[in-house]
Amino acid sequence: MEKLVIIGNGPAGLTAAIYAARAGLAPLVFAGNVPGGLLTMTGDVENFPGFRDGIGGFDLIMDMQYQAEKFGAYVEYEEITAIKLQPGGPHTLEVSDGRTIECSAVIIASGATPRKLEVPGEDRLWGNGVSACATCDGAFYKNLPVAVAGGGDSAMEEALFLTRFASEVHLIHRRETLRASLIMQERAKNHPKIKFHLNALITEIVGDKKVSGVRFVDREFNKEILLPCSAVFTALGHTPCSELFRNAGVETDLAGFIAVKNNTSHTNIPGVFAAGDCADPRYRQAIVAAGMGARAAMDAEKFLADANK
Ligand code: NDP
User: Fold this and answer.
1) Distance 149 CA to ligand 1 centre (A)
2) Whole-model pTM?
3) Reduced to 3 DSSP states, what percent helix, strand and coil does the chain have, rounded to the nearest 5?
4) Any catalytic annotation for residue 241?
5) Which of 136, 167, 177, 209 is such that its CA lies 20 to 30 A from the CA of 295?
6) pLDDT category, 88, cuts 50, 70, 90?
7) Which residue's CA lies nearest to atom 16 of ligand 1?
8) Phi-psi category of 118—alpha, beta or left, where left has phi over 0 and alpha has psi -120 to 50?
9) What is the pLDDT of residues 157-194, one digit of tens each?
10) Position 43 confidence tier, pLDDT thresholds 50, 70, 90
11) How far, in Å, CA of 282 to CA of 288, rounded?
12) What number does the ligand 1 atom closest to the CA of 238 have?
């Protein structure tokens, strides 16, 4: 029987692993289907404290993993395919290589996936002008035109943030009406650098090795437009990777983010904890996920000590 299994090896899972390993829990970490999580798809990370010249997303994850393993965590590149959770444990996990594992506590750090446009060019140019994080990548586009896709609060926020760097920001939304709150809409609409393209359906992201433009259909006039720009930021919302756990009885909000109790990492099932983007509808930053991971490990450690496990 394992003491603690951590599902996910992004910043939340690996920080939880560092803390839990240092507490002598020898946690078993499953990397899942996107080892390292979203950070490994980011180029340079310039907003994670401690790296004054920035650090590559992949390198940051590898360093966290090294640190966790140094203290006795085990990282496995397998997925959890099925899970049975019991209040107080033991919990039963089925692994993609056919094993069945029992454990006393689980930290879910399974992350979230940014919704995609699903258009040609998006995957090919991801990390080379296509990004889902203006906070991370916006500063690379000083005095250059950029586009933001989406019509929600995130799209408004990303567009406003990008005005600090970009020469102009084109906000492209598929419908006539925006989903964003009125106050955010007004802020974006009143900004001289932001230009709205509503009723505009993106059909392609264009570029050879990096983004050079975005193609969309102006649905009002049924006209195709090729807009030159150096980056396309997708702000289409995130889908938390929580379905497996929701089906096992873990409570989520309506959007699927795992619900935690009273500003802790406890879920509704005793002995099951959540950290990082799967439980964070708001911030979705590596440093925040890392902090949540630390908290989850501390909560799990206390749970195991109290239960004498
Ligand atoms: P939302 O789900 O609210 O908005 C997603 C947007 O992306 C919608 O406009 C949607 O279009 C569009 N979209 C989704 N899929 C596609 C697609 N395949 N192609 C084109 N467009 C697509 O997500 P957000 O991340 O904006 O917000 C999530 C939550 O976080 C909300 O509750 C929001 O209020 C909150 N938030 C609050 C902030 C604040 O208060 N400052 C800042 C950021 C987020 P359509 O409208 O047509 O469905």
Assistant:
1) 10
2) 0.78
3) 30, 30, 45
4) no
5) 136
6) confident
7) 236
8) left
9) 999 999 999 999 999 999 999 999 999 999 999 999 99
10) low
11) 10
12) 25
